[in-house]
Amino acid sequence: MGTVDPFGTLRNALWIGGAQWAGKSTVARILAQRHGITAYHYDFHDARAHNDRRIARRLALGEPAPPSNDDTWMHTPPAEMAARTLAGFPVRFEWALDDLRALVSGRPILAEGWGLRPELVAPIIDSPRRMVVMVPTADFRLHQIHVLPRAQAIGNPVSDPALGQRNRLERDRLVAEDAVRHARSLGIRVIEVDGTLDANAVADTLTDHFSPYLASGTNVAPPPG
């Protein structure tokens, strides 16, 4: 992992990792608007500019073409899908760090996204309090699937959309469990979102958690202990 941080952005960043459909992006936007900080949405970049980097990297390494949509979403067991996703996160994380290194702000940068894994973030933060991991409970994940159009189906055409969606959801569950496992082993706070609190109330919880860094215009370290 590269160590160059020309503007000191990485060491002053705050991080929200975790699972899809936990409300990370919504809460990050609320915190940005409340506290005048900049929110970086990993998923937006990962699905756009980073995809070009994935293609270029694959060509440079002489890797085979990616599998078909049916092979990816229907013919691969969810556990293998999860393992492949997790194996790809370190390279994708480096691309996110490139984006963040180029940002300059007198306030912390708040980075959120499922690819911001606790085991990848931990080596570059000075305290576990700079990060939280948000995951939905099983019931809230089902709720989100029913109310969020983007959660109701995979984004690629497949011959059996229902099977592809089931495999995707199981993959996401396994990837979320991995994030929780790593976070707890590293002393990083896990917030389970069950839908009993609205987004503003969840944002209140994160404001309290990040309060040492949001209290002033400077990036201060948390108190000892």
What best-fitting shape do the alpha-carbon axes yield? globular
Label the structural class.
alpha/beta
CATH superfamily: P-loop containing nucleotide triphosphate hydrolases
**How many helices in DSSP terms?**
10
Rg over CA atoms, rounded to whole Å, is: 18 Å
Instruction: Give the tally of structural domains.
Output: 1
Write down how many β-strands occur, each being a DSSP E stretch of 2 or more residues: 5
Describe the structure.
With 225 residues, the protein is an alpha/beta fold. The chain has a single domain, classed as 3-Layer(aba) Sandwich (Rossmann fold). Helices cover 50% and strands 11% of the residues. The chain contains ten helices and five strands, in the order E-H-E-H-H-H-H-E-H-E-H-H-E-H-H. Helix 1 (24-35) packs across helix 9 (199-209) and helix 5 crosses helix 8. The longest helix has 25 residues, at 161-185. The chain is globular, with a radius of gyration of 18 Å.
Quickly describe the structure:
50% of the residues lie in helices and 11% in strands. By secondary structure, the chain is α/β, with parallel strands linked by helices. The chain starts with 13 loop residues before the first strand and ends in an 11-residue tail after the last helix.
Secondary-structure blueprint:
Blueprint: E1 14-18, H1 24-35, E2 38-41, H2 42-46, H3 49-60, H4 69-73, H5 78-101, E3 109-112, H6 118-121, E4 131-136, H7 138-147, H8 161-185, E5 189-193, H9 199-209, H10 211-214
Parallel strand pairs: 1-3, 1-4, 2-3, 4-5
